[in-house]
Amino acid sequence: MMSEQNLRDDVLHHQDKESLPLLSRANQDADAPHWANETIQPWDEHGFRSMNNFIRRYYWCGNASVNVFRIVGTKHPDYQGKTWLELLNRGKRMHINLRLHKENPGYYLDQEHKTPTMSFVTLNGMDLYVDADGNHRTVIAKFDYHYRSRTMLHGVEVAHYEIDMDLYRIYMAMQEWIEQRRYIDPWRIAPHNKVIAREDDAGWKVDIYQPAIEVRGIKNGGKPQLLDYEAAVKLFERWRRFGSLTGTLYKWFRRPYF
Known about the structure:
There is one protein chain. By secondary structure, this protein is α/β, with parallel strands linked by helices. The protein is built from 10 helices and 11 strands. Strand 4 (119-122) and strand 5 (128-130) form a beta hairpin. Helix 8 (165-180) runs parallel beside helix 9 (229-240). The relative contact order is 0.15.
């Protein structure tokens, strides 16, 4: 059972820790966040570009709220591969941002739109990446919120892309099939997409797309056809009857995405 003296010492120790500047506390706290030494993940721009013709919905909000602990990476190449603690200690402009945090911690706590903008992008709605701006402030927010037992960061910009992954995978399988048989295959395919609707109001929008696969028979100059997922699968099954798939369809349908 803890004595009164030990209890007082524990309270004073806790108060001392709370009075430390954020950087000092992050470096000295024995109970550091479990994610402090996790690597800041890179946004896979190449992978995203290969999929962006298969966007099904695009949601943007200029004044959203995000769980700071679901921010896992960044688009900025200078910070990719570092840990969160490394960036807190050695970010290019971290000393300026830490001073501003000390002078005005309420900036991180209120619900007003952050100025300059803090922007994030997500492909799956769960993992967020710093987009155009906010790398240093994101790191500060993560550590600050850990010690405050807070979760939601308000007043930030979020862009969420929803990809038709089934259509993307069947397209990649069909494309690989054609490339393997390029001297004899009479088909050419290309992604096709267009905006068909928009929902919006002040400060947010949802663009709704209609992705498809454009298929053209090149030998007979056939008219291009736009195929949805089910039609593409049927056509691909017809192709398979005339040759060996050699695992292509299986490989693409097992391919992970970020």
